Amino acid sequence: MSLKTERLLSRAKKLAKNGQVKEAKEIYSNIIKTFPNNLLARKEIKLLENKKVANPTQAQLDEVMRFYSSGEIEQALKYVESLIKDYPNEFLLFNICGACHSEIGSIEPAIENFKKAIALKINYSEAQFNLGVAFQKLNQLDNASEYYLQAINSQHAYPSAHNNLGIIFLNKGKIEAAVKSFEWAIAYSPNYAEAYNNLGSALQELKQFKNAKKQFEKACSINPNYAKAFHNLGILSEIINQPKDAVSRYERAVEIEPEFAEAYRNLSKVKKFKVKDPQINQIYLLYSGNKLNVADKARLGFALADINKSLGNHEDYIKYLNEGNRLRKKEIKYSFEESQSFHSIITKLFSSTQPIVQSSSKNTSDIKPIFIVGMPRSGTSLVEQIISSHNSVHGAGELLNFRNIITPILDNHLSKKNNAISEEDMLIIRKEYLDSLASLQAKETIITDKMPMNFRLLGFILSAIPDAKIIHLTRDPMATCWSNFNHYFTAGNGFSFDQVDLAKFYLLYQEMMTFWHKLFPNKIYDLNYENLTINQEEETQKLLEYCDLEWDENCLDFHNNQRAVLTASSAQVRKKIYQGSSEAWKQYEKNLQPLIKGLGAN
């Protein structure tokens, strides 16, 4: 007997053991055709032919799928488990059983069943995909990615696997990889509305707004009832300064999905409501009902605050603002101790050793970064709009790049209990950050990074990139904190949702900026927001001089700058500078006593 025949017999036996009788019989038949006297093959195929059928009937499968499709999941689960007792080697049954468990939220049993299905059938792409979904529900994204990739390797033409893998890449900040995954999903399924919507989100992250808009519009055209795509189109319309389009897209989203809380919140920011607007009553009814989770109720609280403010109902404005903030803090479970701990770690690190300052001669990049930092809502967006109006500057907006680069290095440092960041680490930080700016492919070499919270990382910035320009915005403490308190932040800034937390964090911020000024004298440029609004031209001249930029009249006409703005201040920075915004809190003074007391502002 040849070695090849032995291998075929071995494979057929393994298939038969795993319940894949049809495939095993086919191999035995082929062996007998070639070698009619192969007694082993004849014996095995006879045993299989005499053996009880090891597969469920089509009628049985149809019955279990009827239960599943009609939403009778418990009945489907009970039936499929009885079938598994009769057909313990049928991979399809384990996959269905896993899907039932997943549907009712029993994720661990679902995973167990999907793995059994894969053990019974090699390269079972559907079960691999389902395993990815199960792990994604547990937020075990690395495991989910692994099984999506296995499903794609087993069957590359698997649009859902590409799409779900893209979502994970998008959430991890691997935007280019996400774009490729969504493009594969669309290539295999040209009418896949969700993939177009997700591709739009990824391209928006890359600031490719024109292309992103096309993807959102394609998603909406494929599925005219796709509320999420209309909502995303509304957000993009705000970013590119098309407020009327934003209103119509948000309204379409809530028309399709009347309980879409986030769409109502965004609509409340851009629409000028009238007293008898039917949407107002719709929001009130939704808010007073018992269907909402904490997150959506918080969103609607902020929406009602905005609406009542625009209508001049100040008592209701404060009422819903307080309620929205309370619910938002409850939702995100913010603890001031976490902010305090991070502050202590950073100040201790830079107190224990002199920071390592790299020589500017080591700079192999032409890019010159300008960091604009300060408390959120202190005027950082306005200053970036001014500087980015200069013909030599690219405004990159709020970038997470520096924090993302720092995090693994800082975590490694803490795990090893080191007392200093190494020179090698600083060089890595410098290279990775400048490379991340280069990936923006801006024609200008001077690039602004307007992430306010980078004020906590100035030690790393000035140690790794000593030639960076640092602009620190200061503003009246009460004005700054009030502006934080009456704003809904979609991510981060958990300190802003409680007046006591807000005051404590502001004092922490002041302490940290004093620390950096002492450690890096003459390296941080302080710019006062109120002074800028009063003496615009003079302060702009000094600002440009600090940045080593020649005078450019466009910087005075910053409101005409058509660049996309992704921050909460997108509407304000498209208006001329106006004075008095720092006094707005005073009409609500009686409602802000915890904040006033916390700041010592009496």
From TrEMBL:
Single GO term (MF): glycosyltransferase activity
Keyword Repeat belongs to the record: no
Residue ranges crossing the lipid bilayer per the database entry: none
Chain segments annotated as coiled-coil in the UniProt record: 192-219
Pathway terms, separated by semicolons: Protein modification; protein glycosylation
InterPro entries from the UniProt entry: Glycosyltr_41/O-GlcNAc_trsf (IPR051939), P-loop_NTPase (IPR027417), TPR-like_helical_dom_sf (IPR011990), TPR_rpt (IPR019734)
Domain of life: Bacteria
Residue windows of the TPR repeats: 125-158, 159-192, 193-226, 227-260
Keywords, comma-separated and alphabetical: Coiled coil, Glycosyltransferase, TPR repeat, Transferase
PANTHER family linked: PROTEIN O-GLCNAC TRANSFERASE, UDP-N-ACETYLGLUCOSAMINE--PEPTIDE N-ACETYLGLUCOSAMINYLTRANSFERASE SPINDLY-RELATED
Protein name: UDP-N-acetylglucosamine--peptide N-acetylglucosaminyltransferase SPINDLY
The organism's taxonomic lineage, starting at the top: Bacteria, Pseudomonadati, Pseudomonadota, Gammaproteobacteria, Candidatus Pseudothioglobaceae
